[in-house]
Amino acid sequence: MHTRPITLMLLVLLASTEVLAATPQSVSREDQRDVMVTIYNGNLGLVKDIRDVRVPAGTTEVQFMEVAAQIDPTTVHLKSLTDPAGLRILEQNYEYDLLTSAKLLEKYVGKTVRLYQTDGTYHEARLLSTNGPIFEINGAIHMGQYGRLVLPSLPENLVAQPTLVWLLRNQTPRPQRVEASYLTGGITWKADYVMVLNAADTLSDLTGWVTIDNKSGAIYKDAGLKLVAGDVNRARDPRREARLMDLAAKAPSAAEASRDFQSEGFFEYHLYTLDGRTTLKDNQTKQLSLMAASEVPIVKQLIYYGAQDYYRNAYGVPISNPKVAVYLELKNSKENRLGVPLPKGKIRVYKADQSGSQQFIGEDWIDHTPKDERVKVKMGEAFDLVGSRTQKDWRKLAANLYEVEWEIALRNHKPADQTVTVVEPVPGDWQVLASSHPYEKVEAHTLRYTIPVPKDGASKLTYRVRIRY
Fold it and tell me: How far is it, in rounded angstroms, from Cα 77 to Cα 17?
């Protein structure tokens, strides 16, 4: 007689326990104890978010709130730092149908709402369409707002911020510290460099900046920051491609670079770790100092590529006479006060005019540059140095044998002597028969000359070459 009531009581208790366990546990940013962000060159970030949770024993639904809006849910990994073996994910959902007024209205199409008037009274209305909007009130159709619209409740499938929802199986009811890691788009970084030349174009102050653009839809407060420089291969998904930002950097002196990045080799890439912590706000562009070096030796080069297109087109007179190109070259070595891995980025060059005001004189891209390698920066074309290339002779000696003679004229309108490097392409199997200046065979099909050009003067280079195809 007493067995049945006791059994019913046990069933009620078990059902109550299941209801309590099924009640979603919310874990917000207030529960966050640490966050670390690793940013890659190609619009990709790795987030490690550590939070404290209190999950009852058994099966429980947990809402891990305020994650990145551009999270890749397939990359999420959760582990308990307190009890790694006792916590398991049975199911995972990513809720990204965010709460907006437009989406709220869409959820109530076909349902009854209230339209309040200024005197406090209201009408029961059925929302027919959000375009207008259009209401049905007492069998009549009303277009446009007909009072203050009030909705009875918030739909269950709308969330205020991007949320991961897990169904967890937990063994112990004690508080735990968990780490959620995931990849997200919408966050990228790039390097920018500022070089300031001295008056003689022989030394420079070089400053590097890191520019971080966070459009991932999340805030990373007081985060540990790492940057990965290198060409990391990824399986492309065109739908997840994001626009990159290109913002100019400011140039502090070496003494102003108070925060440093520590560099280390990492797999086939380089990892830069910020000394200290920083906050990355959503929709924020942040700049951090990467490096600074003063009095870095620079070599200015004047190069005349007189026939870049000649052998790629028909024989005869060159298409045009290009200008003399201006380059700056430096060696990334400790002897030159550098010797650190330089991630690829844009370098902008400045120089003071006679009044002492810094003027922008050119910019270029540099690639990832290890220590002890050279960096070559194209500045533009020289104004006061002019080059021209003339074919003086052309002879066909046999079916596949030719002789050609070229004259390169260089004119210098500057008040100082200049040295111009002339680079000439030569096809086929060739032999220089005569040359007015010494030359180098730098490649199988390339001649190189170093020609001094006097101030307010000119120099002429002539050479004759026999070519066999």
Answer: 28
Question: What's the first-to-final CA gap in the chain, in angstroms?
Answer: 112
Q: What are the E-state strand segments in 130-219?
A: 134-137, 140-143, 148-150, 163-170, 176-184, 187-197, 203-214
Q: Which 8-state DSSP code applies to residue 277?
A: E
- What pTM does this model have? 0.70
Q: What SS3 class is residue 31?
A: helix
Q: From first to last of its 469 residues, what are the pLDDT tens digits of the chain?
A: 444 444 444 444 444 444 444 456 888 888 999 999 999 877 899 999 999 998 888 888 888 888 888 888 888 888 889 888 888 888 888 766 556 677 677 778 888 888 888 888 888 888 888 888 888 888 888 887 778 888 877 776 555 667 888 888 888 888 889 999 999 999 999 999 999 999 999 999 999 999 999 999 899 999 999 998 876 665 554 443 333 323 223 333 433 444 567 777 777 777 888 888 999 999 999 998 888 899 999 999 999 987 765 544 445 455 556 789 999 999 999 999 998 888 889 999 999 998 989 999 999 999 889 889 999 999 999 999 999 888 899 999 998 899 999 999 999 999 999 999 999 988 889 999 999 999 999 999 899 999 999 999 999 999 999 999 8
Domains annotated on the chain, with CATH: 23-97+159-184 (2.60.40), 101-150 (2.30.30), 299-340+372-468 (2.60.40.1170)
Residue type, 29: R
Please state, in angstroms and rounded to a whole number, the distance separating the CA atoms of residues 336 and 146: 74
Q: Write the DSSP string, 308-375.
A: TTGGGS-SSS-S--PPPEEEEEEE-SGGGT--S-B-SEEEEEEEE-TTS-EEEEEEEEE--B-TT-EE
